[in-house]
C-alpha cells in the first residue's frame, strides 16, 4: 500500500480523495491546506490528517508519495521538491506549461529514482485501450487522419479572476484543461508531432484567453490529427480514427462527477459495421493505482516520460502558433 499526501483540495483534489477511498493500492493519509482550507469534514470522512505544511509532509518518513492537484504554474517547483525529498509524485495535467519545465521535472524524478505519474486518465478508458490495440496491430490499415473534440462547460460559471481562466495558467483557450487530454491520446496513438498549427477564438467567456481552440498536427509517423476543445459547451468527448481498411469512432458520456458508458463503432472497407459498448470504469482510480504499482515496484508506469514530454512540446507549440498565426515546427 502506497501512503500518499495530497496538496490542493479544490475540485479535482476532492474528486481524487473520493475516488481513492476504497483503494487497496494507494491510501491518502495527509493533506496540505494551502489557501482555501479548512476541509475538516472531507478529511474526517476519509481518515486524512490536516494542518500540516508541504515541508512537513516532505519530511515525514511515513509518506511515500505526493499527489499534486494545484494550479498549473506551481507544478514544477512542487514536483522538484517532492523528488528532492525522495517521494514518488503524481502531478495533475498539464505536467508543466513549458517543455523546459517538463524536462527539468522528469530529470529531477529520474535522478531521485522516484516515479512521476501524470493525470492523463483518458488513456485508461477501456475503449481507448481497444482503439490503441487496433492502431498498433494495423487493424485499420494506413491511418490517414484522426479527429477529436472535447468540451466541458464547468468553467463557464467560475469568475473570470479564477486561476483556471487566466491566460498564463491556462493558455490557448483552455488547451491545458481540455485539449491536452486529446493531445495525450494522439501522442499515445501516433507518437511525436513534427509540426503544429493552432487557432483560438473568443466566443462567450470574458477574459483575454479565448474559449475555443482548434489544432492540426502532422505526426512523424504519418497521420494528420485535428482537435477542437472548448470551455463553453455541455460535456462531450468524441474521437475518430480513419484508416484505409476501416474507420473507428469513439464516443464517451463520462463526466468526472457522473457515470456514463462509452462505445466504439468500426466501419470496415466492405461496409460491415460493428459497435461495442463499454461499461464505465474509474479511469482516475486506474491511473493512480498504476502509479502506486509502479512506485511499489510492481510494474512500469504506463505513461512513458518521452510521451509526457511530447504532449508538453505540442502544448507549447499550440500556444506559440495561436499567438503568431504561424505553424510551428518541432525538433528532436
Ligand atoms: N485529470 C483531470 O481530468 C483533471 C485535472 N485537473 C487539474 O487539477 C489541478 C487543480 O485543478 P482544480 O481542482 O480544478 O482547481 P481548484 O482551484 O478547484 O483547486 C486548486 C487547489 O489548489 C490549492 N492552491 C494552492 N495554491 C493555490 C493558489 N495560488 N491559487 C489557488 N489554489 C491554490 C487550493 O487547495 P486548498 O483548498 O487545499 O488550499 C485549491 O483549492 C489543475 O492542474 C487541473 O488542470 C482538474 C480537473 C480535472
Ligand atoms: O481540467 C479539466 C476540466 O474538466 C474536464 C472534464 O470535465 C477534465 O477532463 C479536465 O482535465
Compile the SSE list and pairings:
Elements: E1 2-7, H1 11-20, E2 26-32, H2 40-46, E3 49-52, H3 54-59, E4 65-68, H4 75-84, E5 88-91, H5 99-112, E6 116-118, H6 126-136, E7 143-151, H7 171-190, E8 193-201, E9 212-219, E10 224-230, E11 236-243, E12 246-252, E13 262-268, E14 273-278, H8 283-295, H9 305-324, E15 328-329
Parallel strand pairs: 1-2, 1-4, 2-3, 4-5, 5-6, 7-10
Antiparallel strand pairs: 7-11, 8-9, 8-15, 9-10, 11-12, 12-13, 13-14
Helix pairs in contact: 4-5, 5-9, 6-7, 7-9
The protein binds NADPH dihydro-nicotinamide-adenine-dinucleotide phosphate (NDP) and 1,5-anhydro-D-fructose.
Bound molecules: NADPH dihydro-nicotinamide-adenine-dinucleotide phosphate, 1,5-anhydro-D-fructose
Write out the strand line-up for the largest beta sheet, numbering strands in chain order: 14-13-12-11-7-10-9-8-15
Helix content percent band: 25-40%
Unreliable segments of 5+ consecutive residues: none
Structural class: alpha/beta
Tell me the number of strands: 15
User: What is the name of the CATH superfamily of the largest domain?
Assistant: Dihydrodipicolinate Reductase, domain 2
Q: Can you count the helices?
A: 9
Work out the radius of gyration: 20 Å
CATH class division of the largest domain: Alpha Beta
- Order of helical and strand elements: EHEHEHEHEHEHEHEEEEEEEHHE
DSSP strand content? 25-35%
* The CATH architecture of the largest domain: 2-Layer Sandwich
Largest sheet: 9 strands, mixed
What distance separates the N and C termini?
38 Å
Protein name: 1,5-anhydro-D-fructose reductase
Keywords: Oxidoreductase
GO molecular function: 1,5-anhydro-D-fructose reductase (1,5-anhydro-D-mannitol-forming) activity; nucleotide binding
Enzyme class: oxidoreductase
